[in-house]
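task queued by scheduler; priority normal; single chain, no ligands, no partner chains; default sampling; output format set to C-alpha cells
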Amino acid sequence: QVQLVESGGGLVQSGGSLSLSCTASGSLRSINTMGWYRQAPGKEREFVASIESVGRIEYADAVKGRFTISRDNTKNTVYLEMNNLKPEDTAVYYCKRADLGPQIVDSWGQGTQVTVSS
C-alpha cells in the first residue's frame, strides 16, 4: 500500500500564489508518476499536472504557464507551485501516484482545498 500526505492550499486572492506538496510512503516503486488532479463543486475530477520518475512532465491546458510541477525523488515528494491563480482554480486538489510494477497501482491523497477569491 502507498500513503500520500498532502499539505499546502488555503485561501488566496485572484492573482496570488499557493504551493502544494505531497509525500508518499509505503510500498513505492522506482518507476512511477506523481501528479495532481482537482475537483470543483459540481464538476468531475480533472487532471492538472503530472511528472514521471524519469522527469517527463505534462500540464492541463488550463494551467500551462501558471503552474509548475516538480519532484524530489529523495523525499518521495511532489510539489505544485501555483501562480496567477484565478477563481476558476478553486477546487479540492488531490495528489495521485501511479507505481509501475507487475501492475499499475494508483494511490490518492485525501485532498486539500484551494480557494481563490475574486
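post-processing summary
- DSSP finds no helices and eleven strands in the chain.
- The chain has a mean pLDDT of 96.
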